[in-house]
Amino acid sequence: LTVLGLESSCDDTAAAVVRHREGEAPEILSSVVAGQTALHADFGGVVPEIAARAHTEKLDLCVEEALSEAGLGLDELDAIAVTAGPGLIGGVLAGVMLAKGLAAGAGLPLIGVNHLAGHALTPRLTDEATFPYLMLLVSGGHCQFLLVKGTDDFTRLGGTIDDAPGEAFDKTAKLLALPQPGGPSVEAEARNGDPRRFALPRPLLDRPGCDMSFSGLKTALLRERDKLLERDGGLHVQDRADLCASFQAAVSDVLAEKSRRALAEYMTLSPVRPIFAVAGGVSANMTIRSALDTVSAEFGATFLAPPLKLCTDNAAMIAWGGIEAFRAGRRDDMTLQARPRWPLDQSAQPMLGSGK
Ligand code: ATP
Ligand code: FE
After folding, report:
1. Annotation-wise, does 11 bind a ligand?
2. pTM of the entire structure?
3. How far apart are CA 142 and CA 145, in angstroms?
4. What kind and span of H or E run contains 128?
5. For residue range 179-202, what is the model confidence (pLDDT) as tens digits?
6. Cβ–ligand 1 contact at 303 (below 6 Å)
7. Ion ligand 2 residues within 5 Å by Cβ
8. ipTM of the complex model
9. What is residue 151's three-state secondary structure?
């Protein structure tokens, strides 16, 4: 099976071709990602209208590039897969419309893929993750523990009750006048910082279950920053590094402890070969990765963390999600709707017509 995937749900425009022959490891023949960071830089966040226009302008080019890198024509594909949600509706629509056009033009099956399923199935693209496995999906818009039992079978064990960690990283960067996206810049600053200097909260650790909260962390960080600003009239380089390191340590501690609880719950299902996988942009963070790796080892579980490029938004994961769906017999048609919301544990089929 050879599938072209399109992704345009947030601020990355992406196209990729993935091939999978039964019994062999999947092959990423091409994976093109055009970011929009520069376009949104002046606004301190992603502006939906700007994102939608940029997707419309760049999608065609990304598809052309992905096909030419793969050395394939449309007629050599088996299906077109596209992110049909959740995400910023203008961008998702741009992708879905182009995918419909390509599928109709080339007479190929069309498959709408849930963006979160794309992230959650990535360990099966990069590693031999067999069902069931435990997944921590941790990104700019999401944070949840999922029990992945099948291509279309996800059970949510818990997650954030407010902000996603990626959002918290981005807001932290904004508060400290660091460039966006915040994750990589906060991580870079944190390398020279003292994670113990500021005692930031670890919310909800005293409560049972896997739910998390990250919005209080941002408020606490703001308070520490303002204390320093008041005292010194500015932020010293070391202060900023220490704030970043302390923030990162707090996020990492919460994710690690809640992973312990999720693993304990998952282990009661007594899987033979326990697998704990991470995905989503925040899992690119090395401090967080190694904390999760340690927790995983405590349970004797295999820890799977895809390469960084496949952790953040990309279209290879959408092409792969399409391949899995195709194998499961799923096909969409020209009535495929773009959905701003699409919770994973109801991911079987985009509901037609409602857009909700
Ligand atoms: P979603 O997938 O939930 O719709 P998204 O598309 O914004 O959200 P991703 O592209 O998966 O998410 O991840 C982007 C987020 O990951 C951003 O918030 C970014 O700051 C964060 N991120 C990227 N690299 C790192 C890093 N090294 N450390 C921490 N966070 C990071
Ligand atoms: Fe994403």
Report:
1. no
2. 0.90
3. 10
4. none
5. 988 999 999 999 999 999 999 999
6. no
7. 139, 313
8. 0.97
9. coil
